[in-house]
Amino acid sequence: MRLRLTEPVTAAAAKAAISVASAYRIQSEARLPSQKSEPRGRRRPDPLADVFDAQVVPMLRAAPGIRAVAIFEELTRRYPELPRGVRRTLERRIRAWRAKHGPERDVIFRQVHEPGRMGLSDFTEMGDLGVHVAGVALDHRLYHFRLACSGFEHAHVILGGESYVALAEGLQNSLWALGGAPREHRSDSLSAAFRNLSREDRLDLTTRYEALCAHYGMEPTRNNRGEAHENGAIEGPHGHLKSAIRDALLLRGTSRFDDLADYRRFIDEIVARKNLRNAGRIDAERAHLQPLPPSRTSDYEEELVYVTSSSGFTLRKVFYTVPSRLIGHRPRARLYDDRVQLLIGGTPLMTLTRGRPGPDGKHGHVVDYHHVIHALRKKPMALLNLVYRDQLFPREAYRRTFYWLLEHHGERIACKTVVELLSLAHDRGCEAELAGALSESLQAGEAPDLPALRARFSPDPQRLPQVCVQLTPLSVYEDLLGEASGEAA
After folding, report:
1. Is 317 left (phi over 0), alpha (psi -120 to 50) or beta?
2. Is 156 exposed, middle or buried (0-12, 13-18, 19+ CB in 10 A)?
3. Cα-based angle 104, 109, 111 (whole degrees, multiple of 5)
4. In what order do the strands lie in the sheet with 256-257?
5. How far is C-alpha 370 from the geometric centre of its chain's CA atoms?
6. CA–CA gap between residue 213 and residue 218 (Å, rounded)
7. Residue 453: pLDDT above 70?
8. How far apart are CA 31 and CA 23, in angstroms?
9. What is the pLDDT of residues 173-227, one digit of tens each?
10. What is the DSSP string of 74-126?
11. DSSP code for 363
12. What span, in angstroms and rounded, lies between the C-alpha atoms of 167 and 301?
């Protein structure tokens, strides 16, 4: 039409790349085809015409958060003749109504993250992944650290619940893997760590947490309780990390691992691959991080324990066995998330696997038969009603052998035989091999042959090497001293 102001119809049509007939039609009727056609009406009756305004809208006003599927189920209950195929229509109608008349919703305000300013920590449950370690389902959580700006991530497997020890260990591992510390550390309200603590213990935990952040020059901040979106920079990546772990388990073909170290390496590899995608941004943010202090600070809790005549001590409702030479001593126990370290004075004695009480609140047991076998050998019948009898057996074959002997040969023979078997495993260092031999005996339905097992796992005197030690005469040292003094002269 603009060309028609200065050109004839044929020339304007050619320049506009349309036919002359179309040019004459447009000139005679300036409206577009879409403006001339009537709006398309319904081709069939509206199945919700009688119920939406009368039934659905009151439900939406009374309960704004109700789901569309719940409304559909209620309508089908009230009106059985309502066809099942109107569910999608109902959902679209409800969505359109909420867009016009629904309540105001929360708004998420995207933030500009300054490099080196904020790091975030949180825990996430991992029980739904079905991970097994050494044939046992692993009840665990994942400590997750992330830099808000570059997206650097670090994850640490936590065997217990959310606690200061788990937070301190995971946070310090993350900072030392990163090579620097942000100026602010953000966490949630830590309500799980404070649960069941007295007021004094809560104040002590708060003080230790603030001291931990001060050690790295970080300002501790928390989001408001119940407002997880305030930690959106880590709450969202929780799901992405768990999805990546789930996919990696599916590609691996199994969720079973030989030991905890193998599973932790698996998690580290996944996190490393995620960090590799952000390597450029992470390297750029490292320049803005604070330098690390010369050493780590404490990431454990410390308590004094008393070793009783049972050759063990009880700590946090868990009984631990130790060598009997420690009976009567009061060593210091440092509790980490997955281990307990014993010290006398400043001298480390040993490290034990940390145990936890049962889900029913009963005491747990961490037992090493090497600690008590010498005493049990003198009192083999003590095995019969021993409090931690099942935990004493280092492998399943020993436990099965005990109950088989108990059923077929009585209490006395069962206790004496199994104690001798444990002694043999301790003295000869053949725990795994002996367990295999016991499994073969159980499959054959035979009792273990102690003399044959002793002969099998004892060293053959004919094969022992003859070691001859020739002592050097002391006069040789006098000759050396004489030569040295002559050279000095």
Report:
1. left
2. buried
3. 175
4. 136-137, 132-133, 256-257
5. 31
6. 5
7. yes
8. 13
9. 999 999 999 999 988 766 555 554 556 666 667 788 888 999 999 998 887 665 5
10. HHHHH-TTS-GGGHHHHHHHHHHHHHHHSPP-------PPPTTTEEEEEEEE-
11. P
12. 12
Locus of tokens 């339905």: 445
Mean per-residue pLDDT over the chain, rounded: 86
Cα(441)–Cα(408) distance, rounded to whole angstroms?
14
Angle at 284 between CA 282 and CA 286, to 5 degrees: 70
Determine the Cα–Cα distance for residues 380 and 389; give it in Å rounded to an integer.
12
pLDDT interval class at 109 (50, 70, 90):
confident
* Of 206, 232, 105, 124, nearest in space to 170 by CA: 124
State percent of the chain over pLDDT 70: 90
- The token duo for 235 is 């709450």
First to last CA, the chain: 122
Output the CA angle 332-357-308, nearest 5 degrees.
40
Which structure tokens are listed for 113?
């993250």
Q: What is the pTM of this model?
A: 0.67
At 376, which amino acid appears? L
Give the three-state DSSP class for 33.
helix
Q: How far apart are CA 23 and CA 17, in angstroms?
A: 10
Instruction: Please report, as a single letter, which amino acid is at residue 125.
Output: E
